[in-house]
Structures are given as C-alpha cells and as structure tokens.
Amino acid sequence: MDYKTLAERLLPGNYPDLEFYEKKYPPRDLPKGAQVTRLAPSPTGFIHLGNLFAAIANERIAHQSGGVLYLRIEDTDLKRKVDGAVEAVKNALRYFDIKFDEGAEIGGDDTYAPWYQRQRAEIYRAFVKHLIEIGRAYPCFCSEEELERLREEQTEKKEITGYYGKYAKCRNLTEEDIYQNLDAGKPFVIRLKSMGNPENKIKFRDAIKGEITVTENNQDVVILKSDGIPTYHFAHAIDDHFMRTTLVIRGEEWLASLPIHIELFDVLGFERPRYGHNCSLMKQDGETRRKLSKRKDPELSLEFYRKEGYYARAVKVYMLTLLNSNFEEWYLKNPEKTLEEFKFTAEKMSKSGTLFDIDKLNDISKNELSKLTAEEMFEFLQTWAEEFGGETQKGYFEDRGKMLKVLTLCMGIGGKKRRKDFTTASQAMDFIKYFFERPENYDEYRVPDETRKPILKSFLVKYDPADDSQVWFTKIKEIAAENGFAAEMKDYKTAPEAYKGSVSDVAEVLRIATTGKANTPDLWTIQQILGEEETKERIQRATA
Ligand code: GLU
Predict the structure, then answer these.
(1) How far apart are CA 232 and CA 73, in angstroms?
(2) Is residue 106 part of a domain?
(3) Is the distance from the beta carbon of residue 41 to the nearest atom of ligand 1 less than 6 Å?
(4) Are residues 537 and 478 in the same domain?
(5) DSSP string covering 188-248, please?
(6) Most CB atoms within 10 A, among 107, 137, 442, 512?
(7) Of 212, 150, 142, whose CA–CA distance to 177 is shortest?
C-alpha cells in the first residue's frame, strides 16, 4: 500500500515536519526535579470534588518542586460542551486558591499555547498524517449502526467489545476498497493500527499505586474523528508531550485506558510523563461503600461548597487529610504553619478508595472557623452574602460595629473557650439571624403559657439596659422567686416539688422570647447588642 499517497488523500495539505513542533515547543528550562503538572478538565460545566482532589495534588507537586501547573481545556467533545464552563472551572478553583502558572484564560507564559484542544487541531492532524504515512493508522468507514451491531455480536459471544483483531474490518481494506469508499464520499474516522497483544503484560510504575501490571493494548482506537478533531486519548498524548508535562495525576477511571496511552506514546516516539492514578472518592451508604455520584450526592459538585459557603481552607485541609496519609499528624503538630509548608508526595497518596465523610469535613470546618478573628469572619461571611445571600442578609453587614459584636460573642472570642458553632457561611448566617431579624418561630418553652406571661411582664417592669450582667441576673432571680420558681438551683434540687421550676426555666423563657431559640450564647450580651427598644419589643411580642 502506498501510505504516503493515502495520507495525502485523507489529510491533504502541507503540514510542517514533526521536528518543527519539537522546536516550537522546546523542553522547559526548569531546575532539575521540577515537575510540570496540569489540570485538564473537559468543559462540561460540572466540576467536582475529584477535580479538586487532583488539582490540589498537582498544584502541590508542581509548586513544591519549583515547577509549573497549567490549565488545559479538553474540549474535543462538542456534545458535552457547555457555555461558561471555563469560567465555572476557574471560579471553582480560584475559590480553593489553586494557583495556575499558565493556561486557558490564565495569562502567564504562552510558549506552549494554545490551551484549548480545539485550537490545536493542526498539530494533531500533522501527527495523524504521519502515523498514516508510516502505516500505523488507517481510515475506518464503519457506520454507527455497524459498530453497534459489532458490539451486540461481541456481547452475545461474551467477547471483549471494541474494534480489534479480526473484528477490525477496515484494518484490512485493500487500497482499492479505500479509494472506492473515499470516491463515494463516505465519512471516515482514523484509527490507530495497534500492534499490541493482550496476552503480553507490561509492568508499569504508577506514581501513586506503585508497581502495577497492565496488559498490552490491541484496540484500534479512533484517534481522529470524522470532524477532523482527535479523541481525548490522542490529543492528551500530543499535548502532554508538547506542553512538556512530567507528571499526570488523574482519576483512576483512566487506568483502563492506560494501555492505549502507552501504545500511543510509543508509536509517536514520545517519552511518557509519569502517571499517578488517584483513587476514587467513596461514600458510606448504609452498609456499603460506593463512589460519590453526580445524581445522588450534591456534595460531589464544587458548586455545593461555594453555595453553602464552606471555608475554602477547611475543605483543603480535609482534602489534604485524605490525600496524604501523614498530613493529619503533621497538621496537629504544626497548626500555625501554612498548608504550603507540608511536604506533599505522590507516594503517600492513598492507593485504593478513599472515604469522603461530610461529617468529618464539618468538624474540620468548625475548627478552622473557630480560629478566625471577628474581622476575618466578617470578611468571609460578607463575601459569601454578596454572592449567595438574600437582600436582608446583605443588610446584616451595614452596621459593622454590631456585626463584629455579634461575631465576637458567637465565636466566644475573649471568653474562656472558643465556641465552635459555625460550620459554613450559610449556616452561620442562619445562626446569627436573630440578631438582625425578629424571630418568626419559637423553640418550645418548658414553661406553660399561663406561667410564662407573668415572667415576661415582670421582666419588662424590671428591665434596665444600664444594668451590668450581675445586676441583670439578680433581677432574673427576683422574677423567679416572685413567680414561684426557685431562685437558686440548689434549692430547687433539694425540693423540686415546692417550685414551678428553677431560675434556669425563667432564663429560658426570656431567651426564647428574645431570640426564638432555646440555645444561645450569653443572653445579657445578646440583649445589650439588640439594644433597649428591640429587646422590649421582642419581649412584648412574646407576651402577646
Ligand atoms: N479531560 C479529562 C477529564 O476531564 C482529563 C483526564 C486527564 O486528566 O488526563 O476527565
């Protein structure tokens, strides 16, 4: 077969010789040991925890080694492309402070651009043409229906599905058949002519999993689709080579394609980057563990964390805990250090399914948020409210002094122990709502209606906003005594039947009346923050 003429017929035109690209995209000038890593999402609009998981690992490894992290957009599949997806990727990763050095919409050095695969079609085609010329790729004219029939036949025979060996019909077309099809204007794809044999095992060193064994590829995979755009397999091989990637951390769902990638790099004559296959994030679902699912688990989407207002550092701390087995201990010992100071390694990454537990994340979140100053918390909540909050919530921040007092109280700043009531921004905003809006619902009172009202009325008579907390509490005791409640807990404990309840029941009445909630930080301080008028108004309303 005259492959050169065939290549010219299939991909007409002058393509630069391959050396041209080697020179155009030269090896990077980086210190020894520096790793070049990337994030290569498809613009499907769905960016998930698995992406963040890989992003953190790639980012750490690149920057720790003095290397480069870049963003490449794998948009070869138009059907899955969604408008605004690149923005979504960038927003999500910016929230988690993943810093790219270069790439799509990043700026930085553009020696290795373009960063969108669709803009690199020319490079891919040059290499496809080369593979046709050397007899390692061929046109395939099989229709979707034919391929579907083939799949059914193979399934029925319990054989491996795909286009390979005796099933690779177009692999053996004669020159005459091919030109006839072309003359008839039949659409075609280009397939790799695989030389592999699945009986042969290849030892492979995975950067995460260590030594693994894979079988040789024998699938004649599509490398160029009928629209002249390559498949992911082919495009990523070209790009990782010419973007001079040294390490690819990607999800383990790609492990099955590794044999194809090994063969592609070999046939292209490229040195392979190292690959590390990241284990999948699992969720405990009753008795079983399963992969986090897009359909069932909202927490898989990174949008979820921004909308809920998770504190980015907390999510990162949790991800690092899952990613590197020695991180948790290091962090306990070094709570003051920046996360960047932790020495991250691919070898310490988990080799099999990692359990993602949102309760654990929530605990970490509480802990991380409890370390903030009131000012930092103010910024954090305000930034969240600006983007996701309602108009009323945005209004909470108008009186900066008041908000700072609220946060100081709710976080226990200056107290004996920091409180850990805040998990996320949305939850915290809900938690502090009663400082800014009158309660609409009230927790259940322990004390019945008829006893409650006299308590509230007595309070209105005695209340003086100038009272310090001691005087205030003495008055609460008086109210208790006047209404048949024990003013001292110890009295109540010795003879509970002698009283309607204790001073703590009286305090609860006032607490719920003021805030709607049975559990709050110090009530005297809350009333101080609310001010005289608002406190009276709320007590008044509760008597109604
Ligand atoms: N475009 C692929 C994805 O979004 C990237 C896989 C890889 O990192 O190589 O899953």
Answers:
(1) 11
(2) no
(3) yes
(4) yes
(5) -EEEE-----TTSEEEEEETTTEEEEEEPP-B--EEE-TTS-B-HHHHHHHHHHHTT--EE
(6) 137
(7) 142
H or E stretch at 68: strand 68-71
- Alpha-carbon torsion 511, 516, 522, 523, what sign? negative
Q: Assess if residue 54 is contained within a domain.
A: no
In sequence order, which ranges of 243-354 are alpha helices (DSSP H)?
Answer: 258-268, 302-308, 312-323, 327-333
CATH number, domain containing residue 148 = 3.40.50.620
Instruction: Tell me how long the chain is.
Output: 544
8 Å CB contact between 296 and 225: no
Q: Element (H or E) spanning 249, and its range?
A: strand 247-251
Residue range(s) defining the domain that contains residue 266 = 3-15+121-278
Mean pLDDT by 10 residues, the chain (544 residues): 97 96 98 97 92 96 98 92 90 93 94 97 98 98 98 97 97 98 98 97 96 97 97 97 97 96 98 96 94 95 96 97 95 94 94 92 98 98 98 98 98 96 98 97 94 96 98 98 96 96 97 97 98 98 91
240 in contact with ligand 1, CB cutoff 6 A = no
The residue to mutate among 42, 77, 89, having the most atoms of ligand 1 within 8 angstroms of its beta carbon, is: 42
Cα→Cα distances 400→110, 403, 406, 429, Å: 44, 5, 10, 15
Dihedral angle computed from the Cα positions of residues 55, 56, 58 and 59, in that order, rounded to the nearest 10 degrees: 110
